[in-house]
Specification:
233 residues; 8 helices; 15% strand
């Protein structure tokens, strides 16, 4: 189902945030991660940041788009966003948290899973799969945004959104919608004022920077996803 939410309820929830590096083209989308942190903080929730302790798929020059001849570690790079507080994903236990959130950026499709290179035939990183399955098995909610919902499709065949399923200047990555359907999900078409909620599996998704939208619009869209995830926790 598609839902709009603007409720800012206080929360004493404890949330795990899973990052994939630092930078839109090879790691976590920094503005989406920041929007997650702000929304959690505004709601009064506590959160801890985790990332896989492994090399990124590659390192991209964010000015030219070219691959750079250097190796970077997902956990170390994520520390740039978490202000040095990231922990190895292997230490994440769902029993310690009320919910999990996975921001987007190409790192979600390159480092957390292989969607960027393999599409619907992708595999999910073992630690990512283990930790997220723990949340679903415990009936604890998970929020995803941007490209990260492909992970929910691959692991859980959840109802998800990546925004529109029709390509346009605003929706340059709309072909992703076909891939999530191919992986067994129902794709929920949404705009930037709504999120998709799989009530049964407690999975919340929003489009974020799948849209070529202004920063404040993306920020608010991510906050909607966070607030709905907290509501289900």
């Amino acid at each position: 189902t598609s839902t709009s939410t603007s409720t800012m309820s206080s929360s004493n929830k404890n949330i795990a945030v899973i990052l994939s590096g630092s930078g839109v083209f090879d790691g976590t989308e920094i503005h989406e991660a920041s929007a997650v942190f702000v929304a959690l903080s505004r709601a009064g929730a506590k959160f801890s940041v985790f990332a896989p302790d492994k090399p990124q798929m590659h390192t991209i020059n964010h000015l030219t788009g070219e691959t750079m001849d250097q190796e970077r570690n997902c956990l170390v790079e994520s520390g740039r966003i978490s202000r040095g507080l990231s922990k190895p994903l292997g230490e994440l236990k769902a029993s310690d948290f009320d919910a999990a959130i996975v921001p987007g950026g190409f790192g979600a499709a390159k480092n957390l899973c292989s969607f960027a290179t393999e599409g619907a035939a992708c595999t999910v990183d073992d630690e990512v799969a283990r930790s997220l399955k723990e949340f679903v098995d415990a009936k604890k909610p998970i929020g995803f945004c941007c490209i990260a919902p492909v992970i929910a499709s691959k692991l859980f065949q959840a109802d998800v959104t990546v925004g529109s399923d029709e390509e346009s200047p605003m929706w340059p990555y709309s072909g992703t919608a076909k891939a999530v359907v191919e992986m067994g999900s129902k794709h929920c078409v949404t705009d930037m004022e709504h999120v998709c909620v799989d009530e049964e599996k407690k999975i919340v998704t929003s489009a974020a920077f799948m849209a070529d939208a202004p920063f404040h619009v993306v920020h608010d869209n991510v906050a909607m996803m966070v607030n709905k995830t907290l509501e289900l926790a």
